[in-house]
Design brief:
By secondary structure, this protein is an alpha+beta fold. About 45% of the residues lie in helices and about 15% in strands. The chain folds into 2 domains: about 40 residues, no CATH class; about 40 residues, no CATH class. The chain contains 4 helices and 2 strands; from the N terminus they run αββααα. It has a two-stranded antiparallel sheet with strand order 1-2.
């Protein structure tokens, strides 16, 4: 069973009998929005694009390690 088949939904049909709208719960709608990054601002999306470009270009100086991040946040490293 696919995710679309498992989703609780109501399908509305037009006069020709073709599916025209899908109704899902608000909770599932928010999950979809967040899972696909549709809740991000243009500034957030630009930051993601820049980070992806840096990663693709191998610009390791633009990133810090997980351990460095934990230290900067005052968290203890366990690795």
């Amino acid at each position: 069973m696919s995710a679309a088949e498992a989703l609780e939904k109501e399908i509305l049909f037009n006069k020709e009998g073709e599916p025209s709208k899908v109704i899902i719960s608000y909770e599932k709608f928010i999950e979809f929005i967040e899972a696909h990054g549709l809740d991000l601002s243009e500034e957030d999306l630009e930051g993601i694009r820049e980070a992806e470009a840096d990663q693709a270009a191998g610009n390791k100086d633009e990133f810090i390690s997980h351990e460095e991040l934990k230290r900067s946040l005052g968290l203890e490293c366990t690795s």
